[in-house]
Amino acid sequence: MAQRKLPKVVIIGRPNVGKSTLFNRLVGKRLALVDDQPGVTRDRRMGEAGLRGLEFEAVDTAGWENEDDASLPGRMRAQTQVSLKDADAALFVYDSRAGLTPLDEEIAQWLREQQVPVVLIANKAEGNAGQSGILEGYALGLGDPVPISAEHGEGVADIYNALSPHIADRQPTTANLADPTEEEAEHDETRPLQLAIVGRPNAGKSTLINRLLGEDRMLTGPEAGITRDSIAIDWRWTHPGDGDERTIKLIDTAGMRKRAKVTDKLEKLSVADGLRAVDYAEVVVLLLDATRGLEVQDLKIANAVIEEGRALMIAINKWDVAENASALFNGVRMALDEGLAQLKGVPLFAVSAMTGKGLDPMLAAAFDLRAAWSRRVPTAALNRWFDDALAANPPPAPGGKRIKLRYITQVGTRPPRFVVFGTRLSDLPKSYERYLLNGIRRELGFGAVPVRLNLKSPKNPYQS
């Protein structure tokens, strides 16, 4: 299956000029968070974009600010500068209504020193309000400004003419344009593992991803809530057992606090964005802070992942500074089994994002977990198990009337889904449903992945 290799186009500019709005417009989705306040975007976000058949990977970056390198804005600027290293072109966005600022001129000077073609974008140019700002753009020495309104979509198609000369010859020659079907996905073990990292603020999610990548790809620091967008990064990992390379799409998410504490509109958007990232994941790592242990909020996040049908694993981070480590691990294990009664035995790992401890075993287990999550049981084996389960523990007969369970079938995977057909199923106790579910997980190779079981009676009400 051919891998898509798209030219990379980085969107650069000072805060609040509309970079994320343009990014969303180019990729055709609301992937990046957008708000009126400046500085919403902090990490690089990537997405496949298109303009009149011209395909490229668009990269949204943090707003460029003239602050000390050690400060949060300074570290954000460094992330933006790094993003240009392997870019094929850059879109430099400025606010035509506000006109040029000294910061715009500073960015333009830096861009002129780089070896990357630049397309100058005069945003917010709807109507005549931005006319003077458009003319000012010529003074930057970066060619003719392209007037657009990213919010309303005006002029965006004109970017094609300015961008095409720089990337038209780098279009992918082969591409897999269609998403794999469920049947293809469950059998294709070479496809990237969609692995999302979730947890409370300051659990070390971005630090963990940086350790895995071996570079400061994600913005980190002592400030809580640095990550706002869910950021997906493609990465190749070498399995320590067999030495084979595996592809992983790492998804970093914003920290999820208790709902009652989330009052800021932007934080609400960030948390919602993180929950959407769970929807797209296959395996989700819930990262705990060893200095704080397991809290009620962690259990709520775990339950949300399970309810969404995603394979879940728990990692206790900051193990290098954990006190009473053995007691902590056993205590978390017991609390998980009690707090996640519907899915006992969720894999639990002790890791350190700072030292790298435990990360390879965690990743190896994530691939095993995905394999179980994608497993389809042969029909003969499923029916043998079902017959044995009914013989070992027959369904009850409330009021002296037998509940007949006729057969079972697997209707889907990712997560595994089963349907039991029979009569008088409305009288079947929940405890018996749990008996069947536990048997499926324990005896059919699903382990600690969420399994769905539905009951279905025949349409004929007189059939018994």
UniProtKB/TrEMBL annotation:
GO biological process per UniProt: ribosome biogenesis
Domain EngA-type G span(s) in chain numbering: 7-171, 193-374
Residue sites binding GTP 2 per the record: 199-206, 252-256, 317-320
PROSITE patterns in alphabetical order: G_ENGA (PS51712)
Alphabetized InterPro entries for the sequence: G_ENGA (IPR031166), GTP-bd (IPR006073), GTPase_Der (IPR016484), KH_dom-like (IPR032859), KH_dom-like_a/b (IPR015946), P-loop_NTPase (IPR027417), Small_GTP-bd (IPR005225)
UniProt-annotated stretches for the region Disordered: 170-190
Pfam families per the UniProt record, alphabetical: KH_dom-like, MMR_HSR1
GO molecular function: GTP binding
Keywords associated with the record: GTP-binding, Nucleotide-binding, Repeat, Ribosome biogenesis
Residues that bind GTP 1: 13-20, 60-64, 123-126
Family as reported in the entry's similarity comment: Belongs to the TRAFAC class TrmE-Era-EngA-EngB-Septin-like GTPase superfamily. EngA (Der) GTPase family.
Alphabetical list of PANTHER family matching this protein: GTPASE DER
HAMAP family reported for this sequence: GTPase_Der
Subunit field text: Associates with the 50S ribosomal subunit.
Reported function: GTPase that plays an essential role in the late steps of ribosome biogenesis.
UniProt protein name: GTPase Der
GN (gene name): der
